[in-house]
Amino acid sequence: MNELAKPRILVIDDDESIRYAVDAGLDFLGDYDVHFSEDGLKGIESMISFSPDLVLIDLVLPSASGIDVLEAIRNNREIKRPKLVVLMTGHPNPVKVKLMTDIGIDKILPKLFTLDDLERVLPDT
Questions:
Q1: Are 90 and 119 in contact (CB under 8 A)?
Q2: What is the crossing angle of helices 40-50 and 66-75, to 10°?
Q3: Which of 16, 36, 37, 64 sits CB 3.0–4.6 Å from 43 for a disulfide?
Q4: What is the pTM of this model?
């Protein structure tokens, strides 16, 4: 990534209020190139066309789950692996966190997040 390029962030979540909150938070925290997908299949397509540095993925999505998106990131050669993969979940628990890190999640963002929570999952720029 050239030094002048904005970090590219893809948010895959079917909840419009979550997409809005993430967008508002990212707008407050810095200058990012942000794209949104409201379901898993569109998210996978966006992974190919947008090639994000960071992807925020909801676990429960229409058309393809967050797990399906993770599998695509791992197995689809057209997808460049983002620097960070963050799972957004309303119910983080130790078992789920362990399972998710085993399959490729770098960080967890609770659905009821603060600006500090959001800032902690952003890539260093």
A1: no
A2: 30
A3: 37
A4: 0.90
